[in-house]
Design brief:
This protein has eight helices and no strands. By secondary structure, the protein is mainly alpha-helical. Among the domains are: 62 residues, 434 Repressor (Amino-terminal Domain) (Orthogonal Bundle), CATH 1.10.260; 40 residues, no CATH class.
Length: 150
């Protein structure tokens, strides 16, 4: 089942201790860093470890070389789309879970977010109707926009 929301790709940002203003209270700095979105290497490492896999096991399951897994987790290399798909399949997760933070996709307006959450609770047939309605409205909007500029 496809998800009913869409979003823009936003690169996750990282803040390192040396980038923060000098703080005497390192506990505060650590708590701030925990609230920041995780980067792909951190998500990959956390997902692998949460499933009790070592890097070699993930490499074997994904068909990627262990050195490539190490580079991805160290943040010194970025996987191709094919590599991401292999990792997601090996870890039994969706690509969204590896690439995006939970709040990184979907509507940014609270009202829209609540509506989409309500739609997710509907049965599949009702979701399909709403999805077709939304897609039709978007096509109509895009067509109107293109005719106005053309």
């Amino acid at each position: 089942m496809s998800r009913l929301y869409w979003g823009f790709i936003i690169n996750p940002f990282q803040v390192y201790l040396q980038d923060l203003p000098k703080m005497e209270d390192y506990a505060l700095a650590a708590s701030i860093i925990r609230l920041l979105p995780m980067s792909f290497p951190e998500r990959l490492t956390q997902t692998r470890k949460s499933q009790g896999l070592i890097q070699q096991s993930l490499a074997d399951a994904s068909g990627l070389h262990i050195n490539q897994i190490r580079r991805y987790e160290a943040g010194t290399a970025q996987p191709t789309l094919e590599g991401l798909i292999k990792l997601a399949k090996a870890l039994h997760v969706g690509l969204d879970e590896l690439v995006f933070d939970p709040d990184e996709r979907g509507p940014t307006q609270p009202r829209l977010r609540l509506l989409f959450e309500a739609i997710e609770r509907l049965d599949q047939k009702e979701q399909a109707v709403i999805q077709e309605l939304l897609e039709g409205m978007i096509v109509k909007y895009e067509a109107r926009r293109w005719t106005a500029t053309g």
